[in-house]
Specification:
The chain has 224 residues and is α/β, with parallel strands linked by helices. It has helices at 18-29, 36-49, 57-62, 94-103, 107-123, 133-137, 151-164, 171-187, 209-223, and strands at residues 7-11, 32-35, 69-74, 77-82, 85-86, 126-130, 143-148, 200-203. Strand 4 (77-82) and strand 5 (85-86) form a beta hairpin.
């Protein structure tokens, strides 16, 4: 590859395995991996620390005046800094996940994080995943991929993860939550989840982890 900055956008619904697969692909290509969901989680954690209901859009928007969210990279590994503090572990809690879902629907939050995401992409060969990367954040990305799988397959993967972490959950509840989130993500007014018109859809329903990684790497190589 030449000296041109190369950006790869990966979007897709909840449970599609974007983060784990994208992280592996970025490592093999020597790209920076940018988990944009982590940025929304940090904004959510900031609101929670202030005792603000993350569903209160005006209140969440009001917190943006004195918050600084940064991504730091050490050996290609992303760390999330909230006002200078490493919150990489705190943003992975269930409460942070719910908060991220709420604040991502706040237009002011999306605008606040927009420049940060784009500036990282301008300066680095990166693989960025999220819900609206190929359609809104990086519409000129060299490669755009929409990673998906059937709701049942995605729910099964999420269910397995939760059980392995010791959570007491029922598969039917995980599936219902996932279908609900699919609907919310694809029907929200601001940057709804959808494939980019010039993107490539990769369905991993019949692929294991290694197969999914190889499918994305091959797609990137085709575009290059």
């Amino acid at each position: 590859m030449n000296n041109e900055i190369i950006n790869v956008a990966i979007d897709g619904p909840a449970g599609a395995g974007k983060s784990t697969v994208a992280k592996a692909v970025a490592a093999r290509l020597g790209f920076i991996y940018v988990d944009t969901g982590a940025l929304y989680r940090a904004i959510g954690v900031n609101a929670l620390r202030k005792g603000i209901a993350t569903s209160d859009k005006p209140a969440v928007a009001a917190t943006l005046g004195d918050v600084k969210v940064e991504l730091a990279f050490e050996n290609g590994v992303q760390k999330v800094l909230l006002n200078g503090e490493d919150v990489s572990a705190e943003i992975r809690t269930p409460s942070a996940s719910m908060a991220a879902s709420d604040v991502s629907a706040v237009p002011e939050v999306r605008a606040f994080l927009f420049d940060l995401q784009r500036n990282i992409a301008k300066e680095n060969n990166c693989l960025m995943d999220g819900r609206d990367i190929g359609t809104v954040v990086l519409p000129d990305a060299k490669v755009k991929i929409f990673l998906t799988a059937s709701p049942e397959i995605r729910a099964g993967r999420r269910y397995k993860e939760l059980i392995e972490k010791g959570s007491q959950v029922e598969f039917k509840d995980v599936l219902e939550d996932l279908i609900k989130r699919d609907y919310n993500d694809s029907h929200r007014e601001i940057a709804p989840l959808k494939p980019a018109e010039d993107g490539m859809i990769i369905d991993t329903s019949e692929l294991d982890f290694e197969g999914s990684v190889n499918a994305i790497i091959n797609a990137i190589k085709e575009k290059m």
